[in-house]
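task queued by scheduler; priority normal; single chain, no ligands, no partner chains; default sampling; output format set to C-alpha cells
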Amino acid sequence: MSASAWRERLDGLMAPDLAEEIDLFEAQMEMRRQGRMEDRVFAETRLRRGAYGQRYDNGHRHDGVASRRIAFPSGDLTKGPETLWDAPGMLRIKIPWGGVTPHQLEVLAELAEEYADCILHITTRQDVQLHFIHLDDSPTIMRRLAAVGITTREACGNGVRNLTACPLAGVCRGEAFDVTAYADALFRFLLGHPDCQDFGRKFKIAFSGCETEACGLVMLHDFGAIARSRVVDGEERRSFDVYVGGGLGTTPHQAKLLAEDLPVEELLPWTQAVARVFARLGEKQNRNRARIKFLVAKLGIEEFRRLVAEERAVLPHDDRWTSFLPQVPRFAEAPARPLGAGEAAAAADGDPVLARWLEGNVYRQRQPGYAVVHVALPLGDISSDQTRALADIARRYVGDTVRTTVEQNIVLRWVRESDLPALHADLVAAGLGDASANTIVDVTACPGTDTCKLGISASRGLAGELRTRLAATAWELDESVRGLRIKVSGCFNSCGQHHVADIGFFGNSRKVGGRAVPHFQVVLGGRWRENAGSYGLAIGAVPSRRVPEVVDRITSRYVADRQGEESFQDFIARLGKRELAGLLADLKTIPSYEEDPSLFSDWGDPREFSMGDIGIGECAGEVVSLTELELSQAESIAFEAQLALEEGEPARADELAYRAMLAAARALVRTEWLDAPDVPEVTVREFRTRFVDTKLFYDRFAHGKFARPLFERHERAVDGGGAVDGEDARAIVEEAQLFIDAAHQCQIKVAGQALQPVAQ
C-alpha cells in the first residue's frame, strides 16, 4: 500500500497531536530534500523522531530479507549510500515502561517484515528498534505506529529518552507499590514538553518498586525514582526517593539522592524543575561533558538540590501534575484466566527441559497461583513470525499484560501456574522456548559493529559466541556461576551496560605490527542488584578472540576460591586488580599476524579487522538551540501552508500561515520569557512589546513591515476569521515565509548582543 493510501486509511485513528507531529516531520523531510533546511538542524529533528543513521558496511544481518531492503544505487554495500535518502537506517520506537499489547506486537511484526529485515530488536531501554529502514518510509511507519498508540518521538536526540520501569511492577513480591501509573504519567507529561527541548544531551529516566533488586537500575540514570510506602493514620502514603546524576559511558557516575520521601503529588513538578535547571545550566558546547551527571558533579548535590527547590517554588502551576492521580487504580491488572477451584501448581513430571525452563524463566507473583514468564530472546532479537506467534500466545494465556525488559527479553505476566507446561510447549513450537533467562547464558549486548557507527568491536558476535559455548554446559556449571550476568558493549559508551555486569566487556583495539587487533576491555564485579548498586573494575584489554577464555578462567577461579557464600562482587574485591590482571596476563600477549592471523579478525566477521569502518555516531546529534528548533518548526508549518495552497485549499493555507508566524514569534518571545503561554493573544502582545516596539525585529530593507501580517491576521482571528480566496491565501503564505526569515535575523542579532562584552 502506498504512503498516501496508508495516510488516508489511518486518518482519524491517530491522536491529533501525533498526526500533526508526523505531518510536520514529513514537511521537514521535503524541506531538507529541497535544500531549505540545514543538515545539522534536520539531523536533530530526525533524531528527535527516532530516525537514526546506522552502519551499513559491516553488518552481520546482510542476508535474506535484509539484503532485499538495502537498495543502494551502486548495488555494492561496500561503497555505501550515495545520499541520505539511499542510506538504510534505524528507527527507534518508544515502549514506555515496557508495556506492549498483542495487537501492537502484530503491527510491529508487520512493519519489520514490510520495511526492515523481519527482525524486532529489544534494547536495554525497553525500546524496539527496526533496522535497515529507508528514511522515505519512516512517516508511513510512524503513522501506522501512532494508530495503535505508539510513538517514536524523542526516542533519540537531545531529549528525554524512553522511560523505563521494572517489568515486574504490580506483581513483584518485594515492591513498595506498583510504579506503572506514575511512570506512565511522567512519560506523557514530558513527551514534547517545552522545558525538555533545550538540553545539551540526552536524559534518561527509570522507576523501581524497591531498593534491592535490579529491575529499575535507578542508580545509573540521569533521573530515577524508587518507590516507598508507609501507613499514616491507617492510610497508605506513597512517595519516591528521587535520584539524579547517574550515568555510564566513559566516565560512569552513581546517581545522588535529590529528594527523600517525595510525595507522589510532587513527582511531576520536581522532574520539571530538574529539567529546567539542566536546560539552563547544563553544558551545551562540549558534548562530552553535557550530561546532567557532569552538572551535578560540578555544582555538588547540595547546590543542585537548592537550585531545583528554588525552581520548583516558581514553576507556573500545571493541572497535569496531579490530574492523573485519580486514574492510578485503572492501571491495576486483572488476570485473563481466573484460577479454577483447587488448581494445582505446575510440575515438570520428569521432563528435564521443562524443569530447567521453570527454574530459570518463571517468577512466582505475589498473587497466589500466578507467575511471570520470561521469554528469552537471544541478543534481544525476535523475528516477525515469532512476534505474531507470541501475540497469539499472549492472547491465549494473559491478554494485554506483556512487557519488554532491560535485559532485552519479553515477559508475560499473570500466567496461571497450571498453564505453565502448555505455555512452554507453545513457546517451544514458536522457537521461543529458550531456558536461558536470568542465567549467565542470557548475555546482553548492544548492536556494536553490526549496525552502530561508533562500534569498535563486534559485541553481538562475541555475545553470540559466548551464548553458544555457555549454553552447551550451562546446567553443568556451579550454581554460583549460573546466575551471573555478562554484558557486552561494542565501545566505551556502555550501551550494553557493561559497568554493572558481574563480567562486562567493552570494545577497543590495539596495533600489532602495523595491523589493528580487535580487543575487549574486561570489567569485573559490577553490582546488577540494588538498582545497579556499584560499578565494576577494569582490569585490562584482551584480544576479542580470547574473551571466552577470560570467562572460563574467571568463573573457574571463583568456584575454586570462593569463601563460603561469598558473592562474586566480594570475591573480585578480595582478589584485587593486581591478582586479576595476573590471571589474564598471558592472554594479552599477541603473536604476529603470520603466527596467528585469527586474532586479527573479529567474531562473526571473517575480514581482517579495521578501524576504518567507524563513523560519526548519532547518539545525541549536534547541539541545536531551542530557538533554532522552534524556528525550524515554524518553517515546516509554513511549508505545509505552501503545500495546502498548491492543493487548492486556501482556507487551510491561510490558517497554517498564521500558525507559522505565531510559532516564529513565540520562539523569539521564549528567548526572554521561557514560560510564555502558548496562547495567540499572549504571543502577539509579547512579540510586539519585546521585539517590534524595541526595533529588535527590524528587517533591514522593509523597515519592519514583515511584522504587520502577523498583527493583521491575528486581528482577523479575533474578529472571527472570514473567508479567504486563493489570492489572499497566496499573499499571507508568502508573507509568513518573509516573517520567519526576519525572525531568523532577529535571533542572530539577539544572540550576537548577548555575546558582546560588558563595558567596565
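post-processing summary
- The chain has 24 helices and 22 strands.
- The first strand starts at residue 51 and ends at 53.
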